[in-house]
Amino acid sequence: MQREAQLQDTVASRYQFPEPGLRTSLIDLYFVCRNHFIPLLHRPSFKSSVTQGVHLHDRGFGSAVLLVCAIASRHSDDPRVLLENDTSGRQSTGWKYFIQVPAFETGVSSWPTLYRLQCCALAAIYTQSRSIPLGFWTMSGIGLKIAQDSLHYIDDNRPSVT
C-alpha cells in the first residue's frame, strides 16, 4: 500500500500539465469539438475531478487529462500547444501532452481500470488524427484486450436481473 502511495505521489512531478487557463480551454474544446462524436467521457464528472485536482494524484486520470489536452490541441489556436521551436506549422499540436503518457503500464497499475480503457480510446483518437495511423489500430487493439480482461473481474455471484 505504501509503494502504491509513493507511485501516486509522483504524478504531479512526472507529468507536465498545461497551465490552468490553457488546460480549462483545452478541456472545453475537447467536449465541444470531439466528445459529441465519440461520447467517451462524462463532462460534469471529468471537469469536477480536474477542479478537485484528481489528475495531480491519480496517474490514470492524469493520463486521461493529458490525452484530452492532446486531442483538443488540434482545435486550438494557442501557440502553447505546439512544441518549442516548432517550425513545421501545426504538426506538433498536442504532441508534448501525448508523449508523456506511457503506452503500457506494468505492475499493480496494469489491472484493468476505466481510466486505462479510456486512455486507450483517447490515444487511438489522437493517433488517428496524426500521421501515425498504425498507432490507431494498436491502441484500439490494446483497448479491446483491456476490455476483455476486465470481464474476468466481474463477480459471477452477483444477483441476476431476471
What's the structural domain tally?
1
Provide the helix percentage.
Answer: 40-55%
Rounded Rg: 17 Å
Shape: globular
List low-pLDDT spans. none
For the largest beta-sheet, the strand count, sense and barrel status come to: none
The proportion of residues in beta strands is: under 5%
Number of DSSP strand runs: 0
Helix/strand-derived category reads mainly alpha
Mean pLDDT: 79
Order of helices and strands: HHHHHHHH
Distance between the termini: 39 Å
Number of helical regions: 8
Organism: Cylindrobasidium torrendii FP15055 ss-10
Domain Xylanolytic transcriptional activator regulatory: 27-150
GO molecular function, one term: DNA binding
Protein name: Xylanolytic transcriptional activator regulatory domain-containing protein
Structure description:
This protein is mainly α and 162 residues long. It has one domain. The protein is built from 8 helices and no strands. Helix 7 (114-128) packs antiparallel against helix 8.
In brief:
The chain has eight helices and no strands. The protein is an all-alpha fold and 162 residues long.
